[in-house]
# Entry
Amino acid sequence: MRVTGAGRIIRPSSFRRLSIMYLWIKAFHIIMVVSWFAGLFYLPRIFVNHAMASDPADIARLKLMEGKLYRFVTPIAWLAIVSGLWLWLGEGIGGAWMHAKMALIVLLYAYHHYCGVLVKRFALDQDHRSHVFYRWFNEIPVLVLTAVVILVTVKPF
# Structure
C-alpha cells in the first residue's frame, strides 16, 4: 500500500493504474507545454514581421496569421495549465521551487494575454512599436522557459 500526498491509501493494483494514468497526464502536460511555448515563440516573431511590413497584402496576411495562431494556442495554454494543476494537486508536489514555478506560469499567462491584446491592436492598425521592441519582447518566454526548466529539474529550494 502507498499513502498519497493527500493522505489517501492506495492498494497496489490501484497504485499501478494511478501510476499509469499519472504518466499519461504528465506526457499530455509536456506536449501541451511544448506546444504552448512554440506558439509563444512564434507569435511575437510574427509581430516583428508585422512591425516591419509596409505592403498592404503582407500586412493583411500577417494579421490573419496572428489571429489564427493566438486562437489556436490559447486552448493549448489552458490544457497545459489544467493538466499541470492536476499533476500538482493530485500528487501533492510541494516546495518553494513549485511556488516560484507557479508564479512564473502566472506571469507567462499574463504575457500570453498581452499577446492577445497586441493581436487586437495590430488588427485595428493601432500598434506602432518598432520591430526592435518586438525582438526584445520575443525573448521573455525564453527566459521564463529557462527558469522553469531549472526549477523543475534542479529544485534549488
Observations:
- The two ends are 30 Å apart (CA to CA).
- Residues 25-154 form one domain.
